[in-house]
């Protein structure tokens, strides 16, 4: 390197640094959470995570009204990550399904409060190491036949689950499943729901090579048609090990009488977390 060129290099470096700084100043401060979530980076992104697949239809994707300010259990946390549609780990911030359930306006769902509750209540010896990875896959208006093996929704969920565990991404803690409202319109959909759900659990377990994979179903709080009771009965009657039911019936609905309100989603998130923790501690004591 010729010494004579040093000052020029230094000058160029200084100009570059100044340009970068002014660029950063233009970007900062973050205007709001969605800005924060789409651009910030979590130091935990590459840690092994306890992963949860979020699957089903609109009430899993979230249609709860976005409140300002957001309730605390919806705020980003450095140890709650989300697998974006691009398959990159980003800090989770609502709406979690914005880039997955793209045909509708997504709102608040159960997964953020679920994750916050787990961080708060998860019994960990080394608590600071519990990092959660949420893998959104839910799409509004979908019937259970669309989630059968071979269908795009199923294949995409399996591919996203595999991408989530790849490269030391972590291990799957379970699937949170909230679906069935659209299967209450046609009697044939309703009466075949139980068999299709059992098939879905078996296929997921086989494809992910997790024979004991935990699946937490949410018992329907509403339906689009007249056969909600039939689907709810099917959900209750699924009798496979490690398939749980958390019943959302009675939680407050929005004016459309179909979608859970934000208050309901907060409660549901907590209920799902308690169900997971109870399951996990009973499994722990069996080992
Ligand atoms: C947050 O910022 C994004 C982009 O900067 C904007 O599109 C969005 O409307 C803002 N949201 C709120 C609630 O202000
Ligand atoms: C699940 O149970 C295992 C075994 O008891 C325990 O080590 C782990 O911390 C538990 N996970 C959570 C999130 O509580
Ligand atoms: C439910 O039943 C009522 C009364 O029989 C009928 O009018 C309505 O169209 C039904 N709803 C659906 C979605 O099929």
UniProtKB/TrEMBL annotation:
GO MF annotations, alphabetized: hydrolase activity
Top-rank lineage group of the source organism: Eukaryota
Transmembrane spans: none
Source organism per UniProt: Leersia perrieri
Sialate O-acetylesterase domain segment(s): 50-278
Official protein name in the record: Sialate O-acetylesterase domain-containing protein
Keywords for this protein: Hydrolase
């Amino acid at each position: 390197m010729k010494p004579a060129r040093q000052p020029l290099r230094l000058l160029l470096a200084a100009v570059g640094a100044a340009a970068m700084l002014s660029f950063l100043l233009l970007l900062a401060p973050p205007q709001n959470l969605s800005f924060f979530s789409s651009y910030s980076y979590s130091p935990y992104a590459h840690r092994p995570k306890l992963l949860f697949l979020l699957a089903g239809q609109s009430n899993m994707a979230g249609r709860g009204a976005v409140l300002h300010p957001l309730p605390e259990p919806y705020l980003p946390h450095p140890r709650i990550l989300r697998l974006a549609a691009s398959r990159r780990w980003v800090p989770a911030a609502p709406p979690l399904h914005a880039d997955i359930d793209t045909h509708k306006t997504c709102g608040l769902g159960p997964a953020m409060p679920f994750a916050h509750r787990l961080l708060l209540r998860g019994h960990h010896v080394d608590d600071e190491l519990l990092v959660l990875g949420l893998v959104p896959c839910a799409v509004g208006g979908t019937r259970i036949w669309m989630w059968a093996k071979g269908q795009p929704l199923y294949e995409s969920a399996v591919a996203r689950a595999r991408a989530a565990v790849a490269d030391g991404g972590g291990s799957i803690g379970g699937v949170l499943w909230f679906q069935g409202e659209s299967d209450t319109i046609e009697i044939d959909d309703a009466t075949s729901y139980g068999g299709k759900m059992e098939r879905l659990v078996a296929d997921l377990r086989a494809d992910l090579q997790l024979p004991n994979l935990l699946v937490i179903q949410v018992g329907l709080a509403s339906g689009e048609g007249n056969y909600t009771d039939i689907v709810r009965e099917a959900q209750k009657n699924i009798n496979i090990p490690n398939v749980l039911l958390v019943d959302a019936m009675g939680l407050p609905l929005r004016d459309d009488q179909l979608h859970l309100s934000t208050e309901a989603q907060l409660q549901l998130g907590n209920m799902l977390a308690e169900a997971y923790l109870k399951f996990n501690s009973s499994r722990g004591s069996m080992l």
